[in-house]
Amino acid sequence: MTPIPESFAIVDDELQIGGMPLTALVARVGRTPFYAYDRRLLDARVQALRAALPRDVSLHYAMKANPMPALVGFMAERVDGIDVASGGELGVALDAGMDPAHISFAGPGKTQAELEQAVAAGVLLNVESFREIHALRAIAERAGRPARVAVRVNPDFELKSSGMKMGGGAKPFGIDAEQASQALAEIGVAGLAFEGFHIYWGSQNLRAEAICEAQDKSLALAQRLADAAPGPVRVLNLGGGLGIPYFKGEQALDLAAVGGHLHGVAERARASFPQAELVIELGRYLVGEAGIYVCRVLDRKVSRGQVFLVTDGGLHHHLAASGNFGQVLRKNYPLAVGNRVRGSSRETVSVVGPLCTPLDLLGDRVELARAHEDDLIVVFQSGAYGFTASPHRFLGHPAPVEVLV
Ligand SMILES: *Cc1c(COP(=O)(O)O)cnc(C)c1O
């Protein structure tokens, strides 16, 4: 049996979400497939972070993990800032009511139009190239407004252990640490409003020691670079990287260890940069476990002894669960039959979608309650990199719905 996250209640063998039985939610939504994100779980995660982190560390939501407007609005009232990665996301963050003073914009290929939008909105730009510095000078002069910038540094270290590396070595993200002094000098010459550093080394890490070490090294890097800065450091973004368990055998991150260590980091940061706001930015850790994807069994087929549950959902809606978004070796996300979680009997099945490709696989030989047509398949850990990270147009099936419950 694949593990069902403990935060979900099961009543009369039926999964509960948003305080109601799954079948009640299905009736309310009116169709399958859909994504549902649970407000209580989102709230609980923010509170757990607040309890573990030092009080003066700001918690930002990296909205590329889940940019659903209602969810971003919910998060905007609970976090200290929002990090966006496109002009489109910037619009959603502003609509959500987040103060532009607390929005930052990162991304390796910001267009001229996006840079202009960001300056007009007054958000902090994490500059990632010399081209952006030069373009911002012209934009700020023309607009008569300051261009608020932090330097996104591609660090000179790599995250230890697994996870998605987004810094160290040759990367399209940020300005190499070796070129940062020059970038800082050009920011000074260009008259941009320098605010600090953004150091982002990776994502989806489950090892507290690796995260703590990366935070130490990020602070040390900022301390080395600060001498060349054209002004005091007011923002020090130490990245994120906190992961969630997706697969059998993975252990949840030891949040207390990360939070405990960060108290020491914050103390050292205060000594070096008395004016700086210390920031961590999290996407998946904030929202990933609060969401499920729900699809319906259309057919139960047996092919040469193997049972296939053919559903109305698949990789076109949930690319990550199919294994085609960042996995090297395909593994199953946690799955259940939502309306009969334990069931009266169980069997090993493969859960597939309606697409004519063998990649359309949501569960490869998983043990589930014996399912019938019209039963509901639930994919857990689906609150991040689900809906918007999937190719909805592929094969022309309808897109899924999203609800916040
Ligand atoms: C993707 C990204 C994040 C969010 O990563 P998660 O794994 O969802 O926490 C944060 N910051 C930057 C710069 C990113 O590119």
List its salient traits.
alpha/beta; 405 residues; binds pyridoxal-5'-phosphate; 22 strands; Lyase, Ornithine Decarboxylase, Chain A, domain 1; TIM Barrel; eight-stranded parallel β-barrel
Largest sheet: 8 strands, mixed
What is the CATH C-level name of the largest domain? Alpha Beta
From the alpha-carbon coordinates, what is the Rg to the nearest angstrom? 23 Å
Number of helices: 11
Walk me through this protein's architecture.
The protein is an alpha/beta fold and 405 residues long. It folds into two domains: 10-37 and 291-404, Beta Barrel (Lyase, Ornithine Decarboxylase, Chain A, domain 1); 106-282, Alpha-Beta Barrel (TIM Barrel), CATH 3.20.20.10. 29% of the residues lie in helices and 26% in strands. It contains eleven helices and 22 strands. It has helices at 22-29, 39-52, 69-76, 87-95, 112-121, 130-143, 180-190, 208-225, 255-272, 284-287, 319-322, and strands at residues 10-11, 14-17, 20-21, 34-37, 57-62, 81-84, 103-105, 124-127, 148-154, 164-165, 175-176, 193-199, 202-203, 235-237, 277-282, 291-303, 306-311, 335-337, 346-352, 361-369, 376-379, 401-404. Strands 4, 16, 17, 18, 19, 20, 21 and 22 form an eight-stranded mixed sheet that branches. It is elongated, with a radius of gyration of 23 Å. The model has no long low-confidence stretch (mean pLDDT 96). Residues 62, 64-65, 83, 106, 200, 203-204, 240, 281-285, 384 line the site of pyridoxal-5'-phosphate.
